[in-house]
Automatic annotation (TrEMBL):
<dbReference type="Pfam" id="PF03928">
    <property type="entry name" value="HbpS-like"/>
</dbReference>
<dbReference type="InterPro" id="IPR005624">
    <property type="entry name" value="PduO/GlcC-like"/>
</dbReference>
<protein>
    <submittedName>
        <fullName>Heme-binding protein</fullName>
    </submittedName>
</protein>
<dbReference type="InterPro" id="IPR052517">
    <property type="entry name" value="GlcG_carb_metab_protein"/>
</dbReference>
<dbReference type="InterPro" id="IPR038084">
    <property type="entry name" value="PduO/GlcC-like_sf"/>
</dbReference>
Length: 163
């Protein structure tokens, strides 16, 4: 066991590169977004709210990026049954909304990128485009959302009223 471990983190120039790539994808698909980029400690490096993006997505996009960096997983992967409890346990700074993606290279979480203001699928696509600006970043292609946003689970029931 050692007292020191190797770490890596995004720099400001890296964060801006991620932000600009995500903005380009949001522009390409015609969906204005709030886009946040954080370092490995969940600290905000870069942020942009495109003209027409939802004002309420400012906070949620920052929380998506922070959640993703600190958990090392894409947001939206927690089961819907625990979303509220975990959110409350983290003083409403944790979110399971789809669209936060860790930026992981060679097993190191460098930070995360997130997008908000579109559908979950659009948010995730824009986040992936941002992460792709960092060579070798994992795109989490096998990620399957499990939260209420994608499963249709609302307060313990499906839209058909069955659990």
């Amino acid at each position: 066991m050692t007292d020191v471990k190797d770490t890596r983190t995004l720099t400001l120039p890296g964060g801006l590169k991620v932000l600009n790539a995500a903005i380009a994808e949001a522009t390409r698909i015609g969906q204005p977004m709030c886009i946040a980029v954080v370092d490995s400690g969940g600290n905000l490096l870069a942020f942009g709210r495109m003209d027409g993006a939802k004002g309420l997505s400012v906070t949620s996009s920052i929380n998506k990026a922070r959640t993703s960096a600190l958990s090392g997983t894409p947001t939206g992967g927690a089961h819907a049954d625990v979303e509220i409890q975990v959110t409350l346990a983290h003083e409403s700074r944790w979110t399971n909304l789809i669209g936060g993606l860790p930026i992981c290279v060679d097993g190191f979480i460098l930070g995360a990128v997130s997008a908000g203001s579109g559908s979950g699928a659009q948010d995730l696509a824009v986040a992936r485009a941002g992460a792709a600006a960092i060579p070798g970043a994992d795109m989490y292609i096998d990620f399957k959302p499990m939260g209420a946003e994608d499963t249709g689970i609302i307060r313990g029931t499906t839209h058909q009223g069955q659990v």
